[in-house]
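Marked as duplicate of an earlier ticket. Keeping the data here for the record.
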Amino acid sequence: MPNDAGFGSRSEPPHVARPPGRSWRTLVLAACLIATFMAAVESSIVATTIPTIVADLGGFNAFSWVFTIYLLTQAVSIPVYGRLADMYGRRPVIFAGTGLFLTGSALCGLAWDMPSLIVFRALEGFGAGAIQPIAATILGDIYTPTERAKVQGLVSSVFGIAAVIGPSLGAFLIQYITWRAVFWVNIPIGLLAIVMLALFLKENVEHRKRGIDWIGSTLLLIAFGSLMVALVQGGQLGALAVTGLVGVGVAALVALFLHERSTAEPMLPLELWRTNRLVVVGSLGSCFAGAVMMGVSAFLPAYVQGAMGHTALSGGLVLGAMSVSWALASLFAGRLMARTSYRSVAMLGSASLIAGGLMLVLLRPDHGPLWASVGSFVIGIGMGFCNTVFIVSIQASVPWRQRGAATSSSMFLRFVGQAVGAAGCGAVLNVTMRALDPAAAGAVDGMLDPVIRATIAPEEVLRLTAILAESLRNTYVLATILAVVTLVISAALPRGLNPRMQVKPD
């Protein structure tokens, strides 16, 4: 009978030094939960308050970049942080990343227009690349595969708590202080996480001289950055500029592939992708599930406020339904996959993504927030199942020396998927809106501000509502197509495999 302690025994890997007492893992878990909570609150507050930010700063046709640039810089930095964590240990890497994230958050609160906010969000994203991946890697180090299934469910439940607190806190800050404070709430939370990890996480790391693939990281940023600009802003740049951007992006991708094959220390662990089926399937599944999630969450509050005419709090609560069900489903998924298989849970989650996407495709402004909340809730169930099963299966399939790279690889593709989802849905939104009325983007800014909306003529409100609702509906069509792709990928997981069957020596 296999020992489900994971990689040979229930003792911790030699790289993790166990302090005196039995509560050290609980304290480290608490610190990782706090760090995850910070990232989750940041996401839920920004997604909820972005209509208010746009109403203040302007630039509705560029607001998807507030999400896209953050996710893009986060994605390209994740492999670097993963490599650094395997070289120098988890502690210094998560400390440095969190510090950079907090600096970016402070500057976001000082933004004076949309371009400056986008630049500061890029800086914030470069720091965020270390938080969730390294926190997940730390938990993968100190818990066994069977325990990880339960712990990852607990980690995901933090998103539910953040979803309840985030929208309410965001609405409070907007009404009584300023939208700028939604970025500043990260600072005390991040500092607490750093202090706790400094006190309770001890490592014995054998430092090895290994290179960082800065060339690969730069090529990746150029490739995805060029393609994202072409995708989101293509309608405003002209055919020649778009062709040039696409050409640069494709050339950079080809150069990246050739470079990663020839370099001794590649940024992306291609050897894992060649030899480990679970890493490939789990990473691709995370990519497309992340695209579905971002394609919905980035635009749903705008539908509730702009097309339905409800408050920022209502938009936040609709989005919060997704995070609450995500948390509950994650807790259940950890138990379910231990009794069934990774494949069964992933396919069930993918089916939920499709069902929730179809509900949002059928959404109309007169349905009200309840219909939107139910669709959001169903999608959250799918995300809870999919994300938990993908990360647990990947971490259990590799030893300690590769776990940082494998975890980072999965999260890298998840955030690439989120960036592509935000950019793709933003492109669909802009193209549809320009097709219906080229001047609508500027007028829609006022639809997101209750004060300005009240001054718009009723017939103009009805016209803009129809344009906005149709444009956003097409984004949900794209999200549903991405959910179908997630289902196909989930079906490629091995039949019958679950956490109790995976045993690998560290």
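See parent ticket for discussion. The longest helix spans residues 400-436.
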